[in-house]
Amino acid sequence: MYEFIPDNPYLLLTPGPLSTSKSVRNALLRDWCTWDADYNEDIVQNIRRRLVALATKKIGDYTAVLMQGSGSFSVEATIGSVVPPDGKLLVITNGAYGDRIARMAKVLKLKHIAYSCFETEAPKPEILSIILGEHPDITHTALVHCETTTGMLNPLSEIAKVAKKHGNVFILDAMSSFGGIPFDMADCNIDFLISSANKCIQGVPGFGFVIAKKEELLKCKDNARSLCLDLYGQWKEMDKSGKWRYTSPTHIVRAFYQALDELEIEGGVEARYQRYCKNQQLLVNGMKELGFRPFLPKELQSPIITSFVYPTLDFNFDNFYKIVKKLGFVLYPGKVSQADTFRIGNIGEVFPKDIMRLLEVIESIRNEI
Ligand SMILES: Cc1ncc(COP(=O)(O)O)c(C=O)c1O
After folding, report:
1. pLDDT of residue 2
2. Probe ligand 1: pick from 72, 200, 204, 207, max atoms within 8 Å of CB?
3. Residue 249 is part of which domain span?
4. DSSP strand E in the chain: where?
């Protein structure tokens, strides 16, 4: 039966903030001076170099820019800084995070259109090709890699290939996949990749980052619709010495450095991916045995987070959530608009033994829900 983890009352089985290691949390426990090389060079610049190396083998062609705020701030900084006044953005969407990019474009008054799919449907390269053929004024295409709304993994390379063929700059929201699913951004034709500290790198929340093709970022001077969320401005300042333009979230950044060390120790992105896949497979198999059906078909499912359909019409998720939380696990409400679902994430400091314990807990309360 489940035992409480000594330093945390529960394990977060969410898409972020997620459960972090004790050593990552311990790394928060000192102050840093943002004027000195021991922070700017040894931590910030080091993190920027390591992020680029995680993203691609072509390290000379790319750079990493860190940005204060949650992941959405980095998405908004990217959208608002890279699409020029005479440009037009195509947002591919099959969930809440794709929709959010379209909302950002609207608020920023960018010229844009959306290719909207159902939440259960992956975007199709052949349809994208038709849209881009019919709208030659589209200059930028944005896609969400793992649509965390459902847990769907979108067909990144196929979509990016079509966007490139039409001469588009390709922007990827890899918020919940980067560091947990291996791919090379140069091989996949990604010009701007966005993620955040508290997802698959397993840091604590507080900043996001953008890995950008330098050749494309260089074109973004004076494009930004916001002073603070100016990706180019942040890059130019940070590139000099590792100094952030405005107050740096020092403790969070130091914890992220520790999280990067721990990713290396685990064996890099491939090893982490294997762990997440194992977690997810155990979860789905075990939940099926307990009578819970995954919302997505297997071929569309990511190894990050899984949506489960309510097992009965009178299933009370709030009640289920409260009982499971008391027993040591935090689940996540559903975000799908077409069905009653809840979600269980398996990223973070979460191991197969934790998933096995969760399944035991759910089995033990099966009659109460
Ligand atoms: C794919 C995706 N994009 C964007 C976001 C937004 O990130 P944040 O909540 O950190 O602003 C999330 C958050 O889970 C996400 O999963």
Report:
1. 46
2. 72
3. 27-264
4. 11-12, 62-68, 89-93, 112-116, 140-144, 146-147, 152-153, 169-173, 192-196, 207-213, 305-309, 329-330, 332-333, 341-345
